[in-house]
Amino acid sequence: MSSAASPTCRKATDLSLKDQIKNYATKLVERRPDESELHDMLRDRKPAETKFEDDGIVPNNARWPLIVYRGVIGVSAKFDEATLIDTLFETNGWGRSWRDSVYDFVHYHSQIHEVLAVAKGTGKVEFGGVKGRVIALKAGDVAILPAGTGHRLIDASKNFLVGAYPAEGTYDECTDTRDRPEAKKRIARVKKPKSDPVFGCNGPLLSAWSGRRR
C-alpha cells in the first residue's frame, strides 16, 4: 500500500477500506485451500524475536517483540502463493487483509497489530524506525508486528506481500511525532491477539507475547 504522509494518526482510512474491499473481491473468485492443505504447507519454525526501544520518534512496543518466522510457509502447485497466505491468516482470525507492499515512509499503528508475509520474491523492510533494523525477507517469511512498531519499505519485488490485522483493534496510521504521547497510551491498551496468524490458538506468538513489561 502507498499513501502521502499524514500530519497525525489517521483512523480507519478510506485507503485501508479500499484495500480490504479489493481483496475481498479477489477472494470471491479464487480457489482457496482447505484446512488439510493449509496444514501441509506449513513448516515447523521457531520465532526469531527482536525488541525495539522507543527512539524518541517511533514508540515501538514496550511489552512485545517483533516476531519473524523464516521460511514457515511452503509453496503448492495448486494455489497462488498470496491465496495460501491470505487463507492461512483468515483461518487463524487475522482476516482483515490486503495484498500489495509496505509504505516507503516510517509509520506505525497505535491501535492494532499487523502481520506481513512474503508471497513472492524478496524485499527489505526497516523495522523499529530509523534507529531500528533493516531485515531482508524472502518468500515464505512472516513478520508479526506488535502495535507501535515502526516500519517502512526499503526495497522489494512488486506486490510481494500479504498483510493482515486481527479482528480486535482499530486500523490507524501514525507518522507524526506530535501525536506520539497519545499514541503511546493507545499502544499500551492494545491487547494480545487471541491467536497466532500462522499457527493458530497454540502458536508460539502467544507465549512470546506474554504480559511482560520492560
The profile of the biggest β sheet is: 6 strands, antiparallel
Number of strands: 11
SS class: alpha+beta
Regions with pLDDT < 50 over 5+ consecutive residues? Answer: 1-7
Task: Report the β-strand fraction as a percent range.
Answer: 15-25%
Order of strands, main sheet, comes to: 2-3-8-5-10-4
Count of helical segments?
5
As a whole number of angstroms, the C-alpha radius of gyration is 16 Å
Question: What's the pLDDT, averaged over the residues?
Answer: 88
Inertia-based shape = globular
N- and C-termini, Cα separation: 32 Å
The helix content, as a percent range, equals 10-25%
- Sketch the topology as an H/E string, one letter per element: EHHEEHEEEEEEEEHH
What are the key terms here?
alpha+beta; six-stranded antiparallel sheet; three-stranded antiparallel sheet; 5 helices; globular; disordered N terminus
Fold topology:
Blueprint: E1 10-11, H1 14-29, H2 35-41, E2 48-50, E3 66-69, H3 81-91, E4 96-100, E5 114-118, E6 122-127, E7 133-138, E8 142-145, E9 151-156, E10 161-165, E11 172-173, H4 180-189, H5 204-208
